[in-house]
Amino acid sequence: MSQALLYSKAPCSLKAIANTTCPAGVKPDDYEASLLSTNPRIANAGSTVVPLRPTILTAGGPQRATNMHRIQSCSVEQQRVLSDLSLYAGGTATLGLASLLWDTKIPDIVGDLNTFGGNGMGAAVAKSSPVLSAIAEYDEALKYYEDLANHRAAPRTLKAAKERVERAFEYMNRQFNRAALPYLNNSEFKMRKAQTVTGKEVWESIPVRDNADVIKLEKFTKAGRILGPGMVAFDGYLRANKVYHMRKENHTQWKREAFIQSGAFGAGIAAGVVIGATIGITPVGIVIALVAGGIAGVTIDRIAQTGLGHLHDLLF
Amino acid sequence: MLTITDILAIVISLAVLLMLLSYLILRLTLTRNIKKAATKSPDFWYDSDHYLGFVNTAFLALACAAPFIKRFKNYDQRMPTNIDIRANAKQIEVLFSYILIISVYTLVLCCLIYYPTDYFGWIEWEF
Questions:
Q1: How many CB atoms are located within 10 Å of the residue A45 CB?
Q2: pLDDT at position B93, please?
């Protein structure tokens, strides 16, 4: 039996999902019934499947249960990491990346770090993994291109930078596919196609083979924020989202949380940058500076949370 | 009576406030001024290492507060070498550079005090 997790982009019915993902040689009615049995929270085939909640797809073979509750019990923020990435880069690449990160043991280290710390660690580990270095190279090429575009560089320079971005993207994709090939070959049933931001067509659902994959994905949801500098904004969003949900649920501590998170977010980033810059400018080097800046950013983020929380208790 | 936690909380909050304020002010004043001065060089923007934005504000603040960093080779690679940053900065910008650097290292010092005192259980001592 093979299984996959599908995060739908917009609310839709289970019947619609069943129609698009039904494997060859299986009756649609049987497939629909099997989907209902593996997704007990969905009452019937006409029920709406909401975004940010995974639908478990099953196909073929005897019903050997893979323990999916670890993924299902993740918070909305964690589910969003998987959902966004599967829609952005495709399900296979998501599991490929989760698997790679699992091998590097990064999730154990950065499970609860903020973005800056994650980036620092990522930069250090990127040196030792071809896939991560491909991501870093793409990131760097993209930043270089954006810098040039922002400052109205000459068309020839811009064209050369654009070509460099495209080459880096192709290289990154090749590395991704190479790493994700075992997962791609093992998927038995049709998976829904999606278009990424780069205009490429990919499979949207995340193939899951066994419990080990589930654990990798669960860890990945916690470490998924290390993917690039753009995720700093994502980190800020997650903090804002946490406060928003506390406010919505009339939690008594929501004002305190807003006070803490707003200060600590900026403090962590600014302190990480300053300390990284101090070390980076010395002969020690930029990689150690990034790691040290990351660690300092995380530590100061935490101590700022403690200090601001205590100050809030003293004042109010 | 104030405990060590209370004192640390006040110091940390002040340092966070001053750090964020000075960083913002330096980004809006010092970085812009240096950018204007640096763009006089015709091929300046074709080198992305010399991009002057949020991150480079930290380098500029360091260059203002500690001019001896010019001795390091990495400084030449990161910063525009054709201008003297300290000489181009106004007095108030130099002051905010000092505030930024001091507040960041105050936070580091607070970490060095907080975690050991918390570990040994001295955090609730009163003064």
A1: 16
A2: 92
Sign of CA dihedral B1, B2, B4, B5: positive
* A289-to-A82, A280, A309, B78, B97 alpha-carbon distances in Å: 30, 5, 29, 14, 20
Supply the Cα-derived Rg of chain B in whole angstroms: 18
B59 with A271: Cβ contact below 8 A: no
Give the C-alpha separation, B19 to A266, whole Å.
9
Interval A290-312: pLDDT, tens: 667 777 877 888 888 888 888 88
Interface test with A, best of B4, B8, B11, B13 (most A CBs within 10 A): B13
Residue B25 pLDDT grade (very low, low, confident, very high; cuts 50, 70, 90)? very high
Task: State the amino acid at position A12 in one-letter form.
Answer: C
The tokens for A248 are 């919505």
| Shortest CA distance from A266: residue in chain B | B20
- Give the span between the Cα atoms of A260 and B71, in whole angstroms: 39
ipTM of the complex: 0.81
Residues of B in contact with A294 (CB under 8 A): none
What is the signed CA dihedral for A19, A21, A23, A27, rounded to 10 degrees? -20
User: A252: Cβ–Cβ under 8 A, 6 or more apart, which residues?
Assistant: none
List CB contacts of B80: < 8 A, sequence separation 6 or more. B34, B38, B41, B44, B50, B52
The secondary structure of B39-80 as a DSSP string is TTSTTGGG-GGG--SHHHHHHHHHHHH-GGGGGSHHHHHHS-
Residue with more model confidence, A286 or A165: A165
Helix axes A91-104, A155-186, angle to 10 degrees: 90
> Do residues B86 and B114 touch, judged by C-beta distance below 8 A?
no
Q: What is the DSSP letter of B46?
A: G
Q: Assess contact for A239 and A276: CB atoms under 8 A.
A: no
Number of continuous H segments (helices) and E segments (strands) in chain A: 13, 7
Pairwise CA distance, residues B52 & B35, whole Å: 7
pLDDT digits (tens, 9 = 90+) for B6-19: 888 889 889 999 99
Contacts of B73 in chain A (CB under 8 A): 283
Q: Give the start-end residues of each E strand in chain A.
A: 2-6, 12-13, 48-49, 55-59, 193-195, 201-203, 206-208
